[in-house]
Amino acid sequence: MRMTKEEYRQYAERHAPRSPVRKNMFNAFWIGGSICCLGQGFLSLYTAAGLDEQAAGTAASISLIFLGAALTGLGIYDDLARIAGAGTLVPITGFANSVAAPALEFKTEGWITGTAAKMFIIAGPVIVYGIGASVVYGLLLILLGLG
After folding, report:
1. Phi, psi angles (nearest 5°) of residue 76
2. Model pLDDT, residue 109
3. pLDDT in tens, 81-120
4. Which of 8, 33, 87, 143 places its Cα 20 to 30 Å from the Cα of 22?
5. How confident is the model over 19-76, as pLDDT tens digits?
6. Which domain holds residue 139?
7. Contact 79, 71 (CB under 8 A)
8. Count of other CB atoms within 10 angstroms of residue 40
9. Dist CA 124 CA 116 (whole Å)
10. Residue 81 burial (CB count, 10 A)
11. CB distance 24 to 32 below 8 Å
12. How many domains does the chain have?
């Protein structure tokens, strides 16, 4: 059976499963929002314990990173991500997951060539482009006299 590109596109559209967009958006919103509320709870807890604002923010970030990595190691974060989609990628716990998941996946290859080498396979490009973008934005602000 020979099809043109247009015929194939129409065929694929008819047979592709429909994505429940509203449900996916709702799940991303409430789960991502819950993660952010948990972070705010940590911040309030550490502030109430006597830490100043900067130290409480650092402690809350560390807590969320630890929680994200621990839930990844237990296999819970991936199940949560299947439901929430991007709702679990945006918060800091998503970064912890992107570092911990490849490390766990490649641990059978050893500590050096597996875990250590593959740990930043997902997070690495995010870090590189994030730093690169911040340098470009900083230079633009300086050149425009806004920095």
Report:
1. -85, -35
2. 73
3. 899 988 887 778 888 888 788 777 776 777 677 666 777 7
4. 8
5. 888 999 999 999 999 999 999 999 999 999 999 999 999 999 999 999 998 998 898 9
6. 22-143
7. no
8. 11
9. 12
10. 20
11. no
12. 1
Question: Hey, is 76 helix, strand or coil?
Answer: helix
- 68 in a structural domain: yes
Q: Can you give the pLDDT at residue 50?
A: 96
| Token representation of residue 49 | 């314990």
- Position 111 scores a pLDDT of 67
Q: Which residue type does 3 have?
A: M
How far apart (Å, rounded) are the C-alpha atoms in residues 93 and 66? Answer: 8
Is 34 a domain residue?
yes
Tell me which amino acid residue 134 is: S
| Domain membership flag for residue 70 | yes
C-alpha to C-alpha distance for 114 and 99, rounded to whole angstroms: 13
Amino acid occupying residue 111: W
Token pair listed for 23? 């449900």
More confident residue, 126 or 83: 83
Residue 14 lies in a domain: no
CA distance 66 to 14: 44
